[in-house]
Structure formats: C-alpha cells, structure tokens
C-alpha cells in the first residue's frame, strides 16, 4: 500500500479576520501652524463619502482657508502602506477591497502599487493562503499526479519516487506564473499572474 499526502487545506477568504480600514486625516494648515487638527475616518466607504468626511474634518478647523489635508496615520490596512498624500479614490478602493477580502487584498494592493487595473484582477489572481509555497504546490499537483505515479511505478519502487514540491513552487515563481507573498500570520498569500 502506498502512502499518499493529502493536499494542504488553505484558508478561504471568509475565514480571514474582518478589517475596517481607517485613516487619520489632518489639516495641513493646522499642522503648519504648529498644532494637529484632524479625525479618524472610515476609509471603506464610497469615494463620495470619503471626500465628504475629509471636507467635514477640514471645515471644522479654526485656521483660515483650510483646503489641503494629509493622511498622518492609518489603521487596519494590513500590508498596504498609505502615503501621506495618497489620492482618496485609491485609499477608498484599497480600503473597500480590504474590508471585503481581508489581508490578502492589502498585500496584493501593495504588491501592485494600488494600480486600479491590477486591483480589478484580484479575484482572478488570488489563489488562497497556504502554510508554505510547498503546500500550494502539493495541492496544485495532487489531483491525478499521485494516481498517475502509482499506476506507472511498481509498488516496490514507489518509495524511491518523490515529487520536488519546493522546486516546483520555486520554478513557478521564477517563471512569473505565481507570486508568494508572506502574510502576517507566517503563511503565504498566493497570487497567480494574470
């Protein structure tokens, strides 16, 4: 009887922690005057709602002619790094993706510099989270491969035949077919390249 390895189970998107991305927006006029004036704003809202929240924050300043803002802090954006002068539509798009898909979307957005075309391809690209690239390779290659090896290799020799899952994963990444992005929980997000 030959021993088979079961494919590693990966976390589904629904099992990932629910993030609520938010930004701390401050008035640059207040900052330049030597004090902080701003507020935490939920970023996972429509672009219009995000702009309106920023405008309300700026309007509540005591400085005259407040028009410019800065994003001085952010929370629950995972691996995505929000720039101080990031465009609000980009912040909102990434935040909504994070709220819907979790930390994998944050890693994907950072990987692609929040390019809108790439963000639209997330669901086609995301293959799940795995304990390691080898576990991904084991799952990808498992269907039919072990059965084919069992059929082709006599039982007496089966113990000498193995699959180099780590090598397959490495070669898949080097070829540009897949990207492994470390996650904060010592696993890897796996993205296929569209």
Strand-residue fraction? 15-25%
Total beta strand runs: 6
Kindly report the average pLDDT value. Answer: 88
User: What is the CA-CA span between the terminal residues?
Assistant: 40 Å
DSSP helical segment count: 9
Strand order of the largest sheet: 2-1-3
The helicity comes to 40-55%
Question: pLDDT under 50 segments (min length 5)?
Answer: 1-14
Structural class: alpha+beta
The largest β sheet comes out as: 3 strands, antiparallel
N-to-C SSE string, H for helix and E for strand: EHEHEHHHHEHHHEE
Radius of gyration: 23 Å
Task: Give the CA-based shape.
Answer: rod-shaped
What is the compact description of this entry?
The protein has nine helices and six strands; from the N terminus they run E-H-E-H-E-H-H-H-H-E-H-H-H-E-E. The chain has about 190 residues and is of the alpha+beta class.
Spell out the blueprint of helices and strands.
Blueprint: E1 22-27, H1 28-32, E2 38-42, H2 47-59, E3 69-75, H3 88-101, H4 103-111, H5 116-120, H6 122-125, E4 126-130, H7 133-152, H8 155-158, H9 165-174, E5 178-182, E6 188-192
Antiparallel strand pairs: 1-2, 1-3, 4-6, 5-6
Describe the overall structure.
By secondary structure, the chain is α+β, with helices and mostly antiparallel strands. Helix content is 43%, strand content 17%. Strands 2-1-3 form a three-stranded antiparallel sheet. Strands 4-6-5 form a three-stranded antiparallel sheet. A hairpin with a 5-residue loop joins strand 5 (178-182) and strand 6 (188-192). Helix 3 (88-101) packs across helix 4 (103-111) and helix 7 (133-152) crosses helix 9. It is rod-shaped. The chain starts with 21 loop residues before the first strand and ends with a strand. The relative contact order is 0.16.
């Amino acid at each position: 009887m030959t021993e088979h390895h079961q494919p590693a189970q990966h976390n589904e998107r629904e099992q990932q922690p629910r993030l609520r991305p938010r930004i701390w927006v401050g008035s640059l006029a207040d900052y330049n005057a030597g004090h902080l004036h701003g507020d935490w704003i939920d970023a996972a809202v429509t672009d219009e709602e995000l702009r309106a929240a920023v405008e309300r924050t700026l309007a509540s300043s005591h400085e005259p002619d407040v028009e410019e803002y800065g994003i001085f802090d952010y929370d629950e954006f995972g691996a995505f790094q929000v720039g101080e002068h990031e465009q609000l539509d980009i912040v909102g798009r990434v935040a909504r993706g994070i709220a819907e898909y979790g930390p994998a979307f944050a890693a994907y957005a950072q990987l692609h510099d929040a390019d809108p075309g790439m963000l639209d391809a997330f669901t086609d690209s995301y293959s799940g989270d795995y304990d390691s690239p080898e576990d991904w390779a084991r799952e990808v290659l498992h269907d039919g491969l072990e059965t084919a090896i069992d059929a082709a290799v006599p039982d007496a020799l089966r113990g000498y035949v193995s699959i180099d899952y780590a090598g397959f994963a490495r070669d898949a990444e080097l070829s540009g077919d897949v990207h492994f992005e470390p996650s904060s929980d010592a696993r890897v997000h796996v993205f296929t390249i569209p």
